[in-house]
Write a structure and sequence with these properties.
heterodimer, A: alpha/beta, Rossmann fold, six-stranded mixed β-sheet, four-stranded antiparallel β-sheet, B: about 350 residues, mainly alpha, two-stranded antiparallel sheet, 12 helices
Chain lengths: ~280, ~350
Amino acid sequence: MSRSLPDPEGSAPASSRETDPQKIPAAFQIEELRVAFGSRPVLHGISLEIPARQVTGIIGPSGCGKSTFLRTLNRMHEFTPGVRIQGRVRLFGEDIYDPKVDPILLRRRVGMVFQKSNPFPTMSIQENVLVGLRLAGIRNRSLLEERLEEALRMAALWNEVKDRLHAPGTELSGGQQQRLCIARALAVRPEVLLMDEPCSALDPIATAQIESLIRDLREHYSIVLVTHNLQEAGRTADFTAFFLEGKLIEFESTKKLFTNPHQKQTEDYLTGRYG
Amino acid sequence: MKGRHADRFPNEPFRASAALRNASFAPGWILDKGFGIVAVAMGISVFVLAGLLGWELYRGAEKAISRYGMAFLTGSQWDPVAGRFGALPFLYGTFLSSAIALLLAFPLSVATALFLTELAPVWLRRPVLGLIDIMAAVPSVVWGLWAMFEMVPWLRQSAFPFLQKAFHWLPFFQGPIYGVSLLAGALVIAIMITPIITSLAIEILRSVPPTLREAAWALGATRWEVIQVAVLPYGRSALVGAGVLGLGRALGETMAVTMVIGNRPEILLSLFAPGYTLASVLVNEFAEATSEEHLSALFAIGLTLVAVTLIVNFFARLLIHNVPFFFSPRPLPLQPIETKQ
């Protein structure tokens, strides 16, 4: 029954980095966030500061509200009927639920990568990467070409696809498709990248590639990574938040949370006591 | 060593029962074989039926074919009394009325389907869907009755005079207005195929994976852009297919059209003039065809109708596979990029 604690040392984020979340400027400041679907509350007042240019992992058992939380950060819940959102979410100081904020523009600043890779099946690799820019109305050819290469290089896909940019995106392997989706999200140069279990459908090699990619991307982006996989959080996240039943139980530097959790519930989860 | 379950599991390998080991066929093999035979027979019967249909039509039409040959399709005179049979007016009427009907019905259907799947509030969707399915099930002759007593008088008194006034410089809207006309026929076909195409289009749009819509939303797409980038490109070939099914229905549509199209075998440019279709002439003249020649010409009309439907379907299928759909996002004006190192 015992499951060993994930080893935060292995390929741990550089230990020289700041480990106190309070001392790093925040990308997102979340205050008393409550979300309910109809009469069913899912998040019960989450308050959290997500540090800028760090990888913040969010872990917790199924149904704890991790994905719901992630989707409040780019207002993806607007299409769910009967959803109620209370509280405040600020992105670099600006309240994103302010009626003056256009959710369309917000989503260009907050990129998202989904659990299942979802390249547009009728588009080529190139079109998939550039579709966000095209939606933003950018027609300048040299800029598009530059961003295409930049995004694909950042997503560590350039060398694999540079000779077949006009091939359909769905021709790529599962891991490549997920990196294509990351490139698509990066091409618009968002300020934050939200990732909803990006590796859960991938084999170990593709997972390792994406995880190393996430660690590289944190130089430029603030990343929020929802994951099922404790080892993944241990390997890639600088900070980790543990959610349970719609509440934030603990938020700490990954190393501290995994080796020396303050809360009994965190320890129980890490040692395998809640599914 | 005695395990925990020694009382339940004897310490020897499991074997299947003697009955199973000695049987040479799985029980139920007769059903399996029988089902296979029946299924193959059903499959073959499709070809047999199509072959028989073609053969019977051809045999009935043999006289007309041997007498006129291809001139049957190009002749513009249809006069059973004088014994002159040319099918061109019917071909013209069939194609033109169906094409106009599809032109009107297809955008309307796709737009309705988009509204119901992407935009409409949830409480509105079910009742409208139910209504559309009811409309698709209304018998042709009922539409015809409504068109004859309600639509045609309205066209004669209001719509056609208005169109004539607005577009009098176009030859399609000139000449006397009777009400019954090719355009009236096209309109009633359009009304009849709209619910069918809409119903199919809704199913198609519903099958678009939600993950694609989310991908577009997450990139900062507006509602229209989500439709343009994620929804329509995914469904485009299926939507064209739905249009083709509608067209097939339009070409063969008989009763409602016969009741309002005017039934005059003439090729006139004006859409206000009466027309005639292949299906209408069959239903109007079959019972009264006395001469062998007339009957044979009608069989030839039937054969033509089948051929037209098949050819249209064939070309539509080519279209589905080869032509980029006009809704698809504009391809980017980019050349392949030279590899930089």
